[in-house]
């Protein structure tokens, strides 16, 4: 069982930046970020497989960057040019194998960290 803990959420003005971090208690192959806005379903944001194979949702491509430090079992999401539509609870997710941008592929989930972007 791998436990995940997110940090770094908060309140930021539109156009600003935030960096989310996720610490894992063990090794994983695919780690990802999902988000859930009020009244909406959870949606995929970004994932990273292995050392540096990344994939992004179209809505965040060019603004968000996902990275990981496998030696420390940590993952980060750098979010730039934030928009009010980015407001959501962001969840870190992980799986021990190759996984798709689909929440059902992920075995482990963090508790979430809230990001609020004001206009």
Question: Strands, helices and their partners?
Answer:
Blueprint: E1 4-7, E2 10-13, E3 18-24, E4 30-36, E5 43-49, E6 53-56, E7 64-69, E8 74-79, E9 88-95, E10 108-109, E11 113-118
Parallel strand pairs: 2-11
Antiparallel strand pairs: 1-3, 3-8, 4-5, 4-9, 5-6, 7-8, 9-10, 9-11
Structure description:
The protein is globular, with a radius of gyration of 13 Å. The model has no long low-confidence stretch (mean pLDDT 96). A hairpin with a 6-residue loop joins strand 4 (30-36) and strand 5. The chain has strands at 4-7, 10-13, 18-24, 30-36, 43-49, 53-56, 64-69, 74-79, 88-95, 108-109, 113-118. Strands 2, 4, 5, 6, 9, 10 and 11 form a 7-stranded mixed β-sheet that branches. By secondary structure, it is an all-beta fold. The termini are far apart.
């Amino acid at each position: 069982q791998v436990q995940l803990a997110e940090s770094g959420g908060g309140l930021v003005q539109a156009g600003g930046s935030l960096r989310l971090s996720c610490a894992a208690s063990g090794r994983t192959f695919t780690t990802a970020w999902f988000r859930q806005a009020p009244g909406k379903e959870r949606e995929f944001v970004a994932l990273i497989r292995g050392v540096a194979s990344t994939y992004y949702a179209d809505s965040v491509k060019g603004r968000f960057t996902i990275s990981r430090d496998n030696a420390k079992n940590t993952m980060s999401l750098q979010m730039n040019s934030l928009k009010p539509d980015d407001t959501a609870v962001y969840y870190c997710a992980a799986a021990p194998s190759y996984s798709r941008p689909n929440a059902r592929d992920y075995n482990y989930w963090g508790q979430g960290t809230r990001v609020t972007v004001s206009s």
